[in-house]
Design a protein that fits this description.
Layout: H1 6-27, H2 35-47, H3 57-96, E1 102-106, E2 109-110, E3 118-124, E4 130-136, E5 142-147, E6 154-160, E7 175-183, E8 186-187, E9 190-202, E10 210-213, E11 217-220, E12 226-227
Antiparallel strand pairs: 1-9, 1-12, 2-7, 3-6, 3-9, 4-5, 4-7, 7-8, 9-10, 10-11
Helix pairs in contact: 1-2, 2-3
């Protein structure tokens, strides 16, 4: 005579599943089973399995692998959150170190160095046969034009000693710097990089720190090319 064990096995699982469903419904905000629920369901399955037809080993291994995967993902998420918090703190601390220093970034306002004159760079998207840097005083009058000649793609530096073409020292500042580049008869995209002092740092909640730079306003730390 065959023994029908269906009713001996299923009620236990069904009862536990119903109990869990009741908890989920009562909680209202819980949309899926967590790791604890997953483990309890597996335990209920083992306790109520048919002794004449136990759970297949392959199926059990698959379920254990699924459980390990869920646990691993949860732990990884927690680790990633901790790392993100740490990086945010480090980024803010690093940004604070810029205060009081001079940085090289994209802009058109340059401040005179202690020895006089200014230095900067021109970023070129492509190689150029002619690169021109024009420097004007606070009144907009051109005080110096620098011919950098042919330059490859990338960054080309320039240095102005603070004197006009007649050798007279030009006092004052800040200076307005414009850059132009061409390759034959075609215009080449060029960006002027200037040195300017960092006044302070702003650290928005959950955002990237920004530098408040004299003459240039707010600049992202990722836009800084160099620091002195």
């Amino acid at each position: 005579m065959a023994i029908d064990t269906t009713y001996a096995i299923q009620p236990g699982i069904d009862a536990y599943s119903a109990k869990m469903a009741s908890k989920v419904s009562a909680a209202g905000t819980k949309s899926s089973l967590d790791q604890t629920d997953f483990l309890k369901l597996m335990t209920a399955q083992l306790n109520n399995q048919d002794p004449f037809s136990p759970v297949d080993n392959t199926q059990m291994v698959a379920q254990m692998a699924q459980f390990s995967s869920v646990a691993g993902i949860s732990e990884m998420n927690a680790s990633m959150k901790a790392i993100a918090t740490k990086l945010g703190s480090t980024s803010a601390t690093d940004a604070m170190s810029f205060v009081g220093k001079t940085v090289l970034t994209q802009g058109d306002t340059a401040y005179e160095r202690q020895s006089g004159g200014i230095t900067g760079a021109v970023e070129l998207d492509k190689a150029a046969t002619d690169v021109l840097v024009t420097i004007a005083d606070a009144n907009g009058s051109v005080v110096k034009t620098l011919q950098l000649g042919a330059q490859p793609a990338g960054s080309a530096t320039y240095d102005w000693n603070g004197k006009d073409d007649a050798g007279n020292a030009i006092e004052g500042g800040p200076y307005k710097v414009t850059v132009d580049a061409a390759n034959g008869g075609s215009t080449v995209t060029a960006r002027g990089l200037v040195w300017a002092p960092v006044q302070s740092v702003s650290v928005p909640a959950g955002g990237e720190p920004t530098l408040n730079i004299t003459g240039l306003g707010t600049v992202s730390t990722s836009a800084i090319r160099s620091i002195a």
